């Protein structure tokens, strides 16, 4: 083989492969893990709301919530692409890994936002559509673009974005909001800080490396753990509001009390440094806790109907 041919062969062999986009990459942009929780809490709000909605329209409303969640996540990934490439937890996401162009992620997010809000307005009602639009805007503009890189209270205020789904589901049935739907909002709002700060405690190095002022980075571990305990204590009475308003019964109240006390135990063990992996365990339990709590709401309504 001639030197020229050999050089060409070596050049071809050493050219790095260009990542190829797949359907899975675009689906990953929608943060399906987060979407699952969003859809579940939104569906619960719809199922326990007083009134009636046609089953097909109920599915449309839930689909709109899912699409809106994915839309906000895609825009979030577009905006955070500069820091995602330096964080171990996020560096393999489709944009920093080079599998999806940033402008395509932004375009996808904008398109899905418009579709979800429009369909919700036309097929369901304006109140649900307005809340859906606010939830997208809050996550994108208030949390992602404004608070996340500026204040350690980012997840406290910005966490409101994740608390909208049950209110949206409720509004899809009732056409508005009331004390009970606001109680559902407040449950997730109070749950978010201890949930996310538990993650931040064992991912602190990642956030510090990219300059995101998460609570453990700015205030230190001890101050973060104290605030986690504070919010977990506040969460317990908030979860009992639907019982005291008469929306839900004793089954829900008992479930909320028992799971809330166990959540509080996790927060206490994190504060007392009971074990090295206590924050990881609290983070894992926090996800299970919210699923069980909202599942108990539906079960309580079903049991009440079965008994009567």
From TrEMBL:
Annotated pathway: Porphyrin-containing compound metabolism; heme O biosynthesis; heme O from protoheme: step 1/1
Membrane topology (UniProt): Multi-pass membrane protein
NCBIfam families named among the record's database cross-references: cyoE_ctaB, PRK04375.1-2
Predominant localisation class: membrane
Cited function: Converts heme B (protoheme IX) to heme O by substitution of the vinyl group on carbon 2 of heme B porphyrin ring with a hydroxyethyl farnesyl side group.
Entry keyword set: Cell membrane, Heme biosynthesis, Membrane, Transferase, Transmembrane, Transmembrane helix
E.C. numbers: 2.5.1.141
Protein name: Protoheme IX farnesyltransferase
Recorded family membership: Belongs to the UbiA prenyltransferase family. Protoheme IX farnesyltransferase subfamily.
Annotated transmembrane regions: 29-49, 56-79, 110-143, 155-177, 183-202, 228-244, 283-303
UniProt key word Hydrolase: no
Gene: ctaB
GO MF annotation, one: protoheme IX farnesyltransferase activity
Other known facts: Carbon 2 of the heme B porphyrin ring is defined according to the Fischer nomenclature.
Location of this chain's protein in the cell: Cell membrane
GO cellular component, one term: plasma membrane
Keyword Membrane: yes
Biological processes, Gene Ontology terms: heme O biosynthetic process
Domain of life: Bacteria
Catalytic activity annotation: heme b + (2E,6E)-farnesyl diphosphate + H2O = Fe(II)-heme o + diphosphate
